[in-house]
Queue: 4 jobs
Job 1
Amino acid sequence: MKGKTCTFRVSPEIDKFFTKQILSQPSTPVRLAPTMGKRLFLRLLITSVSLIALILPLAAAGQVAGQVKDRPDSLGTISAQRISCPNSGLVGTDCYALQVSCPEIQDYTVYLKTFAPSGNPVGTVTLTQGGTSIALYEDYDFGTVTLDNLRSAGFLSVEITFGKPFNNFEQGWQTSTRGTGVRTASCRYATVTAWIKRNLAPAIPLCAAGVSAGSQQIAEGLSHYGLGEYLTFAELASGPPFNRTDEACINGGQHEVEYCSGSFIGMQVTLNDARQYIDPAYPGSWCSTDLRSNRNDHEAQFFADSVTSQDAELNYPSTNVWFLYGGLDTSAAINQGENYRSQIRSTNRVGCVQDAPHLIPDSISGAQQIASDMIAQCR
């Protein structure tokens, strides 16, 4: 897998096997006839090659070292600057430009717009749009309802945007990645979250809400970047929509009746969503091409980039993870989200807003539900 490295550890069982083989050899020097020495050498060589052939597939399947990696993927670094808030939209308290540098991908500037309560905040809540995440959460039809309710309850709200209205030229969280994929691209969001915890919420709970691809970034951060160390509560709305990126981009999965919406659908994203939100992270139109051509040319890379990849961390003892879906959502995001939720080994819960679409804050009841959940759980 280009741009990735793998580290294998030998399991205790295989280690014992090798030790037994070594110790079973004579410890007293033995003089062998030339032909015997050659035969013995060939036998040892064949045995070694056979053992390697046995071990490598197990290692590739994650069965040699166990299925959980030793440490998260590396976070990046941030150069932060306080800037003027935009004149449009809600009046923010403070705004920041964060120059994010992550391994393997190009630097990217992420912007924050904050809303402080009248007194000392009881917690900090980040809010991230879906898609390319280049717009503010307040731009949803009822996004301001969530923000107003959080401020009234004493929370510091932080909108995260990968572009507008601060920068009209940036293309989104999954762009400018040198083709390394959505998992590597998610380093930016994870790095920003860690910075917010250290600088805006050092002594109070930090919680995160993300809609659609915004929830994808939270989930990638939890599974691969150690965000369980920073977040008290996370609410994943309508997703993560390509949790299993391989199944999102490859046809052939089974259809199921989705929770909440009742839609009979599989795990695949639409061709348009593949082009807009997954392809930009790769060297070319990998996802849309595999979908359109019924191919699986990039299955290994897509699975490695998935939230629930072989090496995913799926136990978050310090983070309560909730999932929220809309009853009018007919996309595969609910199946994808439930696939992730079913594998989490720590506290989690699922909820349904019957009159909400895929973009849940476009429904007033959805926007209110996100605020209500944050107020109750971000403690």
Job 2
Amino acid sequence: MNLSAEAALFSILRLRMVEMQLRERGIRDERVLGAMTRVPRHEFTPQGYRNQAYEDHPLPISKGQTISQPYIVALMLEALALTPGDKVLEVGTGSGYVTALLAELAAQVVSVERHATLADEAREVLDRLAYANVRVIAGDGGQGFPACAPYVGPRRAACTARATCRRRSHDYPRGPRGLAAVAIDPDAQRQAADYVARDLPVCAVGSGRGAYVLGLGR
């Protein structure tokens, strides 16, 4: 298959993903749906899994990490309710796919990844796709990245993070009007709800294959 035919096929699969996996399941934020229509998930997917890039499940990447299921990503982004002027801190760049989506929705994205190899790979793809409003940093984002603070926009700061129940929600920095969206392993659902409730009210909870999403109150 030549490159133009491959690009056309991926475009069709991406549109189908948005309509069948997201819109039909209740995702209503048109900015989120538009971003997920534009961002080529296959570009962030390892070569051996590119043919599965728009399927309804997570995909493995290096360092034992994954690209999250598209529906889970959409739930987190919808919970954040970003505006075009917002500045976002992302803890855990991973493949860079969510970073690209955040860049479509916000004015500036600072993304911190603890695995230097993943940070380098994500940075290369994001640069190739011309996301000029993204900064990818190799380091431990568990305590945020104050060098680029404040993470504020016209309305709010925001933070997205992958987490386990070993980390409490206050480990992830938020501005005074901030919001955090956290994807948590499904085996820890009950514990996750408990640990979030001890810190901030849960404003959105959505379940999906492979993870639970909890939106933490502003």
Job 3
Amino acid sequence: MAEPAQTAVMSAERLLDTALALAQAHGSWEALRLHELAGALDIPLADIHDGCPQKDDLAEAWFDRADRAALQVCEDQGFAAQPVAVRLERVMLAWLDVLQAHRRLTRGMLAYKFEPGHLHLQLSGLQRISRTVQWFREAALLDSTGLRRILDESALTLIFVGSFARWLYDESPGAGDSRACLARALQRRYGGSGTAGTGQSAPSVAGEAPGADPPAAGTA
């Protein structure tokens, strides 16, 4: 018998999967209605409220799923021995790969957040970006502190937001253009050759241990 926590996770996953399927059938995230979701799951609308007080919570669950996929990458054998740029590229691509299946819906989720009356969602979106970047750093095994960490978080946030924005509208096969731009941006910041897409390792920056963070700006 499943533990209560496992049952809750499975229920949350089912809720999200059903919501994505309904929105996909409608062709947009905007068209999804929570009463329709309750009907599809054959549960009272009040149960939807208990698990999802607002529609945006489903979007947050979607991004949480991407976060979990990114965190699993660091468990791969040999991951820690790869250069920083490659580790970050692998982590961030794992995040994007989850969202790839519903990229149009992902755009719709973000459009909903940025509606004029949704300032509270925009503020939570900023928190989401910060939280996700911090988890990227954890998954990539970065351990800098103080000013170096602050500068690195700022740089990585810019790379992440820019790459994500490009990826959202990238119509190249497999979003290859935005994936390549991400690799180049990480190479410029962290050195080495971004080869996560090929599964190959790249040499680390001269004089830098494979697991080291990049030098802080102005300290190279």
Job 4
Amino acid sequence: MSYRIAGIDVHKKMLAVVVSDVEIESDFQFERRMFGSNPEQLRSLAAWLLEQEAEEVVMESTAQYWKPVWEALERYWKPICETREGARRKSGTSHLAQALFEKGYVRTYDDAFDTLIAKDSPAYVARVGLDPFEAVALVRKHGGVPSLAHPGTVVGLEELLPKLVAAGLAGIEAYYGEHSPEITARYLARAREFDLVPTGGSDFHGRGAHGADLGGVFVPPETIERLESRRRGT
């Protein structure tokens, strides 16, 4: 049975989108498109995802650039996707909006998103994400090697880090384009102190968008073997 998933790499002014059937037995075939980030382009994205019969969407984004994309998909893609013949049953804000409209609490389906369930509205409830301990446990459960990214943005790192290590944290990002030599040295020292693998990367999100160019941040080649050894438990 076909099951098509879309992946979206969200940049400030551009979206890179790929769609593939993940339940085929042969090699994956990919459909790729680029879209802008303005409202008209986001509606075009939703229409293209419907045309591609994508049933699920995953996004990778820096900062808050994902929010207007998510809101556009909730409004223009999800309701049609979930009512299409053969669609797998899901629930979400689209169902609530439809119910509010059918009961007469809002004038239109779209009005529900603009009033009662809009951001900062009386009925809006923010989604709850994983806390860092749950994230470490989940990565470990599925055979991964959890590493703490952007440690400089973590509030209360000095108190939190030993607790994360006790929970199974295996690495900490030390090599990063915005780190000064002093900051890199600080996190290398933390890695030695807690027996963590110092990790890093470019954080590349497209030219002119975020992070350094691919290959622009040096990470020692032995980092890969060290991460592999942690995955194997050796």
